[in-house]
Write a structure and sequence with these properties.
- The chain has 15 helices and twelve strands.
- The chain has a six-stranded parallel beta sheet with strand order 3-2-1-4-5-6, with helices on both faces. A six-stranded parallel beta sheet has the order 9-8-7-10-11-12, sandwiched between helices.
- It is globular.
- It folds into two domains: 2-146, Rossmann fold (3-Layer(aba) Sandwich), CATH 3.40.50; 166-350, Rossmann fold (3-Layer(aba) Sandwich), CATH 3.40.50.2000.
- It is an alpha/beta fold.
- Helix 11 links the parallel strand 11 (278-281) and strand 12 (300-303).
Length: 352
């Protein structure tokens, strides 16, 4: 039996997308054991996945410590993996890959960059641009597998696997109106809209549609969420006393909601993996073509400032880094009025 390790030390959405590596490699090597090495706060999106046999969870801050990295690498080496996939291909994952002693190590090699160390036995060049509706980020994860193990019919849609108990989630049973989940805050400040804009969007939804609204935010963002809630006009339409602080709880809750409106991030990927309609608001520094997966203008749609003002700024790597440091000015240009031009028909299509 082949032993395979996928190293994906990044955020929730990245880990969910990387689950496609397991889904695809299981088609090529069905009699294999596939383990995932991820940060501990992301495990929820790959739990109960039939294609993943074991999850190795590590604390992000701990892994940045050299003694922990060396100890972890030794632990991986002792497992004697046959194949390692390294979709992130950064220092930590490349270090682990290099010293794992795995005969096959697959990772990305940026064009024009080389190293004296043979971190990966199979170096895959990143795609220049997306060619499929799934978006560049998903396409690249599948490409990583297909470059070494050719796939006849690749799988491009990440899935979440709920237990029977999770499917019976009952906390919303007393609410008869459709429930709209709103991701009010991004995973980082750079991915979060101005609070006043968020309030205007929520007020519009609760004023014009017969729905209940819920907020999604990280547990450490409760103060900001409360501030936004207290600024909203129709607090009676907002379900603020139900909140799930862990990923599996949010997945169960999102599975009972009608749709999601959110800043781009992990919650969007979760909703899509549950086949829930999504409206995504992109931060100006994010490349929409990388992350706008399966958008058809109806089930999934989004808005980016460059959609409306294409000449306002550049998408070069250097400019995006500058914008990421402080996207406030550009975020302010993406006004609620601009967003509502796209959001209104989306809501009308899904909420009768």
């Amino acid at each position: 039996m082949k032993k395979i390790l996928v190293i994906q030390n990044k955020r929730i959405g990245d880990v969910l997308i990387a689950s496609l590596i397991a889904a695809n490699i299981k088609k090529i090597i069905p009699n294999s054991r596939i383990d995932y090495f991820v940060y501990d706060y992301t495990t929820g999106v790959i739990e109960n996945n039939p294609n993943i046999d074991n999850i190795i969870a590590i604390n992000e801050k701990d892994l940045k410590k050299i003694p922990t990295l060396i100890k972890t690498t030794w632990r991986i080496r002792k497992e004697k993996y046959d194949i390692i996939f390294d979709p992130y291909s950064k220092f930590q994952s490349k270090f682990i890959s290099l010293f794992s002693n795995a005969p096959i190590r697959v990772g990305y090699q940026k064009k024009g960059k080389s190293s004296i160390f043979n971190f990966h036995t199979h170096k895959v060049l990143p795609l220049k641009e997306k060619t499929l509706p799934c978006g560049k980020s998903i396409e690249e994860r599948v490409h990583l597998v297909d470059s070494v193990f050719p796939l006849d019919v690749p799988i491009y849609s990440p899935k979440l696997y709920l237990t029977d108990q999770e499917k019976k989630y009952s906390k919303l049973n007393s609410y008869s109106k459709p429930v709209v989940m709103v991701g009010i805050l991004g995973s980082t400040p750079q991915k979060s809209m101005p609070y006043s804009y968020i309030v205007k969007l929520i007020d519009y939804v609760t004023s014009n549609f017969e729905v209940n609204v819920m907020f999604n935010y990280a547990p450490n963002q409760i103060a900001e969420a409360t501030e936004i809630y207290e600024a909203c006009k129709h607090q009676d339409a907002i379900i603020f006393d139900i909140y799930e602080s862990n990923i599996r709880g949010f997945i169960s809750l999102m599975n009972q909601c009608k749709l999601l409106i959110a800043n781009e991030g992990g919650s969007v990927h979760i909703a899509k993996a549950l086949d829930k309609p999504t409206f995504t608001i992109f931060s100006p520094y994010i490349l929409k073509s990388d992350w706008s997966s399966f958008e058809d203008g109806q089930l999934h749609t989004s808005i980016h400032l460059l959609d409306e003002k294409p000449d306002l700024f550049s998408t070069s790597r250097e400019d995006r880094r500058k914008i990421e440091e402080d996207p406030t000015f550009l975020y302010n240009q993406l006004t609620p009025e601009i967003i509502l031009k796209k959001l209104t028909p989306f809501l009308k299509h899904h909420i009768q």
